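ok here's the first one, seq then struct tokens
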Amino acid sequence: MKSHVIVGRGATATKTALLLAEDGERVRMISRTGGGPEHPLIDRVAADATDTDRLTELTEGADTLFTTAAPAYHAWPEQFPILSASLLTAVERTGVAYVMLGNLYAYGPVDGPLRPDFPLTATGPKGRTRARVWEEAAASGAKVTEVRAGQFYGAGAYSVFSLMVQGQVLAGRLALVPQELDVPHSYSAIGDAARTLVAASRDEQAYGRAWHVPTATLSVRELAGRLARLAGAPEPRLEEMTERDLTLLAFTEPFWAELHEVLTKPGHPFVVDFTETEKILGVSASPVDDVLRELF
């Protein structure tokens, strides 16, 4: 029986663990709180992944190490290198295959559909941090791949849409959005991210390179409208936030200050090319309405 270790306990980690366990494979989930779903084949362990010796002990004998974990958003430049170094050391000590959940920040601004073979040219601190994490893993000689997701939406998502639009739309209130309302944007469902992680882990062709999670591409206004219609809520009322609005919001929580770096270029669609994921890994994007229905 195959066995796997997943570092993290969020929505993507949970869905990945359940997919593996439902296929009859053992999973050990590691997080500081020891959280995770209940399943006979899932073992939940409370441990700090930056404790490299403990992480190595917990990973020994596994076939694959998945990581979906990340430090607090505003602390990425300081803390992500520490976490990633510990994970990579455990991989090198144990010889397990290594599957990383990443995002799209490392590319920086681009024109046209974003492909996984694009250079990582981000100059901001979060983008450069993400690039460094992948570049060091890829250069290590380990058997490694990275699955890069877009902005999450749907059940379990933690994103601009879930935090600033979803609840307001369902309540019939005005939503202020730090994103252009009518420009196409690619969104990833949690379930699609998990399915891509599992598919990549099982395909020898997947290692040594990155893959894009399949996405749904539509504007914020279109996505909010789909959500409202499914929920029977009023037509969404949306307004684009100004730079001043976002700056004031940043005084309440460090997370919001970090959005300045990752907002897309004005007037430019943000579209993800996931052709190879569909063709080689066999994973496609879930229908948008199906993803949104999971919220109810």
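and now the second one, same deal
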Amino acid sequence: MSNPFKRIIHHHSVPEVLKEKVLSDIGMIKLTLDIADLFLVKYPNTIGDLLNNGNNNSNHKS
């Protein structure tokens, strides 16, 4: 099986359509990671902190 990257001619540029597709895919991956980070890491941490602070405040008032 031949490596397709070895067939690229160095003095030719990559087609703009291919560049746009790659950059679009990278953007989609970054967006997916940001959304996953927001909802799977930051949101639960925030809710946990709010609940823990609520419990701590009610314990200190007693």
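notes on #2: The chain is about 75% helix and 0% strand. The chain has a mean pLDDT of 83.
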